[in-house]
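Before the break, one more example. Copy the sequence into your notebook; we will annotate it together after we see the structure.
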Amino acid sequence: MSSKSSVIENLRKAVLDLDVDRVRATAQDVVRLGIDPIEAIDDGLAKGVRAIGDRFAAGEAFLTELVMAGEAMKAGVEILRSTILKRKLERKSAGTVVIGTVRGDIHDIGKNIVAVMLEAAGFEVNDLGVDVSPEKFVDRTKESNGQIVAMSALLTVTAPEQKNTVQAIEKAGIRKKVKVAIGGAAVTPEWAREIGAEGYSDNAVDAVELFKRLLAS
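Here is what the structure looks like once it is written out:
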């Protein structure tokens, strides 16, 4: 019979190998053997994603590998989620983030990678997808008690939507409760300062550290 440690290690290796089918099969072993799903996520799936993220940051892995590792982790979490809900287990959250690509922009690869890396680091992530209006950012932030609003813009013409969203957050009266972080090919640290955002990052690995710093400040 497989030991808990070997199953969790297999989960980590399956993510490293970008093998979604093996991740799913091993996640089912976790459920079948009654292994703590939170432990399986933290010590198996998330460790695998973080390792690929470190390789990517060091220039030793391709963007496609990071995307595939994220998909593998999501597939495993999907299988484990029902067990977590049944047991009413809680994974200690590092913080709550509302993330999306701003209105008028449908690019999502960078945003998706940041979302996966945040989940791997223990954040509760509310991913709104693409073409997200300022109102939708505000509504989800209120609903989820979001602590950070993270906005991506890859097109120069959509960058002003980040400013519009900051203004909408101010108008809703929740600006003092949340930190704003931006990223994407169209934006710069100078733009972040101009619109009053507390954070800027140009890559997923640094974004995780940035978000931790924002919540600690």
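The mean pLDDT is 93. The radius of gyration is 18 Å. Try to locate both features in your own notes.
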